[in-house]
Amino acid sequence: MTEQNPSSENSAAETHPRSIRSFVLRQGHMTAAQQRAIDTLWPDFGVDYQAAPLDLNACFGRDSDKVLEIGFGMGVATVEIAKRLPQKDFLAIDVHGPGVGNLLKLMEEENVNNIRVMRHDAVEVVENMLADGSLGGIHIFFPDPWHKKRHNKRRLVQAPFIAKLLPKLKTGGYIHLATDWEEYAVQMLDVLRGFEQLQNTAADYAPTPAYRPETKFEARGKRLGHGVWDVVFVKK
Ligand SMILES: C[S@@+](CC[C@H](N)C(=O)[O-])C[C@H]1O[C@@H](n2cnc3c(N)ncnc32)[C@H](O)[C@@H]1O
């Protein structure tokens, strides 16, 4: 929680080049209200990237169950979930500046304090900032489907990344994925089934847990006639 301005393009995407990323950095339009939310709330709720372990209990000021959310978009579902589960704390990561501003703005409007926000590549945060066994849950909702065959390699939910993610989860912790892209849903199920330390909570796709509200992407998918699939596995 230092002075770095998250609205600048000072992103690790440039400083730590990696060949294949799960996102494309878009400039995006930042509204005045989103920018104001960053200017005023980042010192309290923003977490700057550092290539060193983060003390999550210190970060939230309490010893609680921690949930990591990767790719929160505009943060609408994030805030709703944090309200529904006030006893848990949420580390929410995205690379998209206006979304960061929007999430902070919603937190203020809804008086939600159990979220900390990062603007960075979540892959690097997982690699460098999270201690093993530090998470009670992981949420990845409607990750970019990268539906063209030649772009499939950019998908976040692939075995090498999940292999990096799983040690961060404590025993009994869960990973919850959701998508409206059927072929990605199949991939999600396949990838998670490939880890013997994970147990599916359902025969295949899970009923949507009560804490997850419908997101903008989900509503759009449903309008287009897509289904929505939730995948929830627990660490043995
Ligand atoms: C399709 S949007 C879904 C947003 C939100 N979960 C929802 O359901 O509305 C995917 C989001 O993931 C973010 N994202 C993709 N790869 C990421 C990464 N490696 N680290 C952080 N955020 C990422 C994108 O910037 C984008 O906001």
Which characteristics define this entry?
236 residues, alpha/beta, 7-stranded mixed β-sheet, 9 helices, binds S-adenosylmethionine, EC 2.1.1.33
Structure, described:
The chain has about 240 residues and is α/β, with parallel strands linked by helices. α2 packs across α5 and α4 runs parallel beside α5. Bound molecules: S-adenosylmethionine. The site of S-adenosylmethionine has 23 residues, from β2, α6 and α9. Its EC number is 2.1.1.33. It comes from Uruburuella suis. Catalyzes the formation of N(7)-methylguanine at position 46 (m7G46) in tRNA. Keywords: Methyltransferase, S-adenosyl-L-methionine, Transferase, tRNA processing.
The total of beta strands comes to 7
Number of helices: 9
Q: Report the major sheet.
A: 7 strands, mixed
- What low-confidence regions span 5 or more consecutive residues with pLDDT below 50? 7-17
Helix content percent band: 25-40%
Q: Please identify the oligomeric state.
A: single chain
Function: Catalyzes the formation of N(7)-methylguanine at position 46 (m7G46) in tRNA.
Keywords: Methyltransferase, S-adenosyl-L-methionine, Transferase, tRNA processing
Binding site for substrate: 148, 180, 215-218
Pfam families: Methyltransf_4
